[in-house]
Amino acid sequence: MKDLFGKALLDYYNGNYIQDIITETSISEKDILPLPYLFRDYSDMPKIEQKALNICNGKILDVGCGSGSHSLYLQNNGFEVKAIDISEGAIEVSKKRGVKQAQVKALLEENACFDTILLLMNGTGIFQEIKQVSKYLSHLKKLLNPNGQILIDSSDIKYMYQDEDGGYWMDVNAGYYGELDYYLSYKDDKETPMKWLYLDFETLRLACKTVGLQCELILEGNHFDYLAKLSEP
To answer: pLDDT of 175-188, one tens digit each?
Structure first.
């Protein structure tokens, strides 16, 4: 990967903000991801993110930390936080902003244990495909301390397939409707396409059950999004 996401974060942090990130998926047209939004304070975060931060406890792992906004808020409130991301630029920015423990690392490479594991901004996206959900959930389970919790958000994007008559145009022979191809571009350069997964709550709950995790709906957002808490029964 070219790490265009990391380059964009570094540009913004270093005062070279002239363009935003452009995103696109296999079922949606191009959209703007404003760089200032990736540096937002707690007061500007969606209610789902605020709720997740408010119920964090103990030693925390922030997965896919981006610019470190969630980690910084928790750290400033006295928590021990480890932030990880596969983007070298994101980790560099997180460190420069003051995140004490930030590391370039994929989730499946993490082996320490935590009381709270955060996966926000469509945390299920990291699973990539429906067939990999159990593998990721099993690994997350191994990283939990006794009485630990995983706080993860996602959206049920079934609404994106709805036509004007209220019906759905999904291909019944295709895979799970939340599996998308995700495209990112920045400054006229295109990132390598990647898989991205949106999971509806019921599918997440059933997947958790197969690996011995309890799945609780914590909060529903205004646009088919939700926050879930996963834990051992």
So the answer is: 899 999 999 999 99
Is 156:201 a contact under the CB 8 Å cutoff? yes
Quick one: which H or E segment has residue 196? strand 194-197
pLDDT at 30 over 70: yes
65 vs 146: CA distance, rounded Å:
24
* Inter-residue contact 118 to 60 (CB < 8 Å): yes
Adjacency order of strands within the sheet including 225-231: 102-104, 81-85, 60-63, 114-119, 144-155, 225-231, 214-220
Task: Report yes or no: 49 and 120 within 8 Å, Cβ to Cβ.
Answer: yes
C-alpha to C-alpha distance for 112 and 101, rounded to whole angstroms: 13
* Distance (Å) of CA 95 to CA 2, 30, 88, 102, 212: 20, 31, 11, 6, 35
